[in-house]
Design a protein that fits this description.
Structural class: alpha/beta
CATH superfamily: Glycoside hydrolase/deacetylase
Helix content: 40-55%
Protein name: chitin deacetylase
Number of domains: 1
Order of helices and strands: HHEEHEHEHEHEHEHEH
Catalytic activity: [(1->4)-N-acetyl-beta-D-glucosaminyl](n) + n H2O = chitosan + n acetate
Cofactor: Co(2+)
Number of strands: 8
Largest sheet: 5 strands, parallel
CATH class: Alpha Beta
Number of helices: 9
Distance between the termini: 57 Å
CATH topology: TIM Barrel
EC number: 3.5.1.41
GO molecular function: chitin deacetylase activity
Radius of gyration: 20 Å
CATH architecture: Alpha-Beta Barrel
Strand content: 5-15%
Amino acid sequence: MPFTTILPVVFSCFGLCFLVLLYVIYKPPSWLIDQLQRRWPDVLFQVSTTSRQKMVALTIDDGPSASTAEIQAILDGHGAKATFFLIGSHMPGREETLRELVRSGHELANHAMRDEPSRALPAAELSGQIRRVDTQLQEIYDSNRAGSGSRLQQPSSRSRSRYFRPGSGFFSTSMRKVVADSGGRIVLGSIYPHDAQIPFWKLNARHILSMLRPGAIIVCHDRSWTAPMLRAVLPELRTRGYHVVTVTELLNATDG
């Protein structure tokens, strides 16, 4: 077969493989998530639950922002809870917003100090960032506990769960050790509509709803288009019988 005839076939095969790879990245099949969870059991992708209730954890990255209060209002209006993975440099000046999240029963977690790929950081720098953000989070819980008394819905500050989500979502052996040494756990997810890059809330809502299964962890971002997405997703989740909870609540329903 002449080379000029083979070349288009080769390019077509490469193109098809590339499209398949993109699709798997965008909508990873459940068997792949299962395999990832077995391969790295210390990293949380999803939870196998024993609860008879259908539960999913909702996580929201990159806050706080000007959109956080609106996102909280929508969650509270639908009886949904979320774990907010916060960037330390975004927190100053928005402490009251974060205290209100805790008062409403939401959960705060660590998304490093800056919006950057955490995997590229030296171990010492990553460890320092995790400690700094953990200190900021602890101060929010402590101040809320002191001012709210029995009205505080979250566990005491002493028992605050220590979750870390790396910037850009990639981890390494070194990172796993740093996080474990800090007393934390890496939390990723099993449903990610790539909403940080795709600002089309209808498309993102369809993505989430198409991948639902009990024990899933949904990864979203604190953006201006997140509110309309949640307005579409949360009622449908309730219609399908799902309870939307924090990471800790989902883990409490695990079968281990």
